[in-house]
Design goal:
mainly alpha; 4 helices; 0% strand; elongated
Length: 124
Amino acid sequence: MTPSSLSLPLAVAGQPLFGNQWLALAAVLAGVAVFMLAVAAVGRWLAATHPATPPTVRVAKPVEVGPPAEVLAVIAAAVAVTCGRNARIADVRAAKPSAPSVEALMQQWSVEGRRQIYSSHQIR
């Protein structure tokens, strides 16, 4: 096979496709437009055949679990000793754990990075 037989039949070395650079640009742009129309048509077809219904999600109501009976007895005894026998406890709720802040997480990352850097150094 000769090198000339391997070249594209429409392209000649040093000359634009179709013999004119503007005609080549128009052909490429037309190809892109046809591709975009095809993608839009497939998207519309998929939207028509697959309706977007939101999935039904059932959320269970959270069950409030109080502290165990032993903890309530200790709290009641502490209140009776501190405030007297006539004191009443209105409500005992467990504190919800708060999520760590972004700053705290970033500080953990930086400390770990420093630890890795310092541990890679050799002691003289």
